[in-house]
Design goal:
By secondary structure, the chain is mainly alpha-helical. It folds into two domains: about 10-45 and about 110-140; about 45-110, no CATH class. Helix content is about 60%, strand content about 0%. The protein contains six helices and no strands. The protein has helices at about 10-25, 35-40, 50-65, 75-90, 100-105, 115-135. α2 packs across α6, α3 crosses α5 and α4 (about 75-90) crosses α5 (about 100-105). The longest helix has 20 residues, at about 75-90. The chain is elongated and about 50 Å long. The relative contact order is 0.19.
Length: about 140
């Protein structure tokens, strides 16, 4: 469903948050082992890292019976959680619009990052390289 070559509009903020979580975990260890990336992606995120329009589009399709089975597992789990929360908001307040419910959900804390440990590792290495090149002054 994602267009080839598209990127999320919050990638710098998400990457920065992943680096913060990585640093937190690293400070509690004596080095890096592969389990650290799994721990990082399972930590709570400050929000769901998807744009409101994209989430509204997927939630709208879901409410009409769209089957998530064709998505990558992490994205499927994320959209299922967003849809679950939107349904709860709509049930509690039948007058709320889907767009408003999606906005509330997407901008609330997410239980995890909904990316694979391998993706987290790639982000951490890429951002680390960028920061080293810029003398540690980079944003993400």
């Amino acid at each position: 469903m994602k267009k080839t070559g598209s990127s999320i509009e919050f990638s710098a903020e998400r990457d920065s948050e992943i680096m913060e979580r990585f640093s937190q975990r690293l400070s509690q260890r004596r080095g890096i082992d592969p389990s650290i990336y799994k721990e990082v992606v399972e930590m709570p995120a400050s929000r769901f890292w998807v744009s409101e329009p994209r989430a509204a589009y997927i939630v709208g399709k879901s409410l009409k019976g769209y089957d998530f089975s064709g998505m990558f597992e992490e994205k499927r789990l994320m959209f299922e959680e967003i849809t679950r929360r939107v349904r709860r908001i709509i049930k509690d307040d039948p007058g709320v619009t889907i767009a408003s419910a999606v906005f509330q959900v997407v901008n609330s804390e997410a239980p995890r990052f909904y990316i694979s440990p391998e993706t987290a590792k790639s982000i951490i290495y890429r951002v680390g390289r960028e920061r080293r090149r810029s003398g540690g002054r980079g944003q993400a």
